[in-house]
Give the backbone structure.
Amino acid sequence: MSDCLLELTNVHLAFPSRRNWLGKVTEYVHALNGLDLTVRRGETLGIVGESGCGKSTLAKLLMGMLTPGTGQLDRSRLPADRPGGGMQMVFQDPLSSLDPRLPVWRIITEPVWIASRSSEKVRRALAEKLAQQVGVRPEYLDRPPHAFSGGQRQRIAIARALSAQPDIMVLDEPTSALDISVQAQILNLLVTLQRQQNLTYILISHNVSVVRHMSDRVAVMYLGQVVEMGETQSVLEAPAHPYTRLLMESVPRLDTPLGEAPQNTELPGNRHLPAGCYFRERCPWAESGCAVPQPLRRLTDNHATRCWKAEKIIAMGGK
Ligand SMILES: Nc1ncnc2c1ncn2[C@@H]1O[C@H](COP(=O)(O)OP(=O)(O)OP(=O)(O)O)[C@@H](O)[C@H]1O
Ligand code: SF4
Ligand SMILES: [Mg+2]
């Protein structure tokens, strides 16, 4: 696809979780298990799925902080010569990602400093420009990060990401630690910046209403796989995969985070992967045909799912 900026094909990633006395790995945590994903230029791609399904592992992989065990990560359409290779990340807790000893103007321009060693004067000017863009008062730039409120710190983290002129910003729960009113301000800021700078966002969130509000497309993750992907409207309003349906049903109020979903959405172990469809043990639609692995397959041009019964489930309204 011409506007495809980033592509992951059949990516697997496992963390060693247990070793024997010889140091040999005897058990793995299977965090990503054949993950397929495309990211289009200029879009916001929302990623949802319950705690432990591999969202942050995916984010770290995209950022080059982890490498795939097997599978392909195609970043060839991103500018390799920019700090971060055209990608920057904003984390849930800004304070943990900001050096507490540095004044924020240094923090904001650190990616540029590492890449180009530009002069202090140039960096200060850049920090002031970015501070203005994200709504931080330039006269506060000499203060350390703990002198700012949570929302202000997240603005600082966003400015820092922007300093590297990324094409893609990976936003891992960017507003989850903030009060509701502050959340809305940060989300609005992100929308404005995206419009001004033609940014592409990968937005990871537990919160369905945040994803619905922000995303052009959504990918639903379950046990290290994308089980459903497509335009936000189709995926969230007419889900084709039983897991997505379960997620939507477990969100009685729009502002309920998925992470606090009811007990029946508990993730099976990712140490011993199920055979066949990963969702089989919890799926009300399961039958013998589900004992084979399910590929991500196209339902329409803008909707794909990992369930062979999807058409039937949609036709019956999922009941
Ligand atoms: N460095 C690591 N070593 C071992 N296991 C890990 C490591 N990082 C993540 N995991 C495991 O991989 C799985 C996926 O974790 P990940 O952090 O990607 O989930 P997540 O979807 O981001 O969850 P949350 O919504 O709680 O942030 C989990 O079982 C986690 O315990
Ligand atoms: S393949 Fe079978 S078990 Fe898996 S989601 Fe579809 S109906 Fe359920
Ligand atoms: Mg996470």
In short: The CA atoms of residues 110 and 160 lie 7 Å apart. The chain is about 30% helix and 25% strand. The pocket of magnesium ion (ligand 3) is lined by residues 55-56 (CB under 6 Å). Residues 259-265 have pLDDT under 50 and may be disordered.
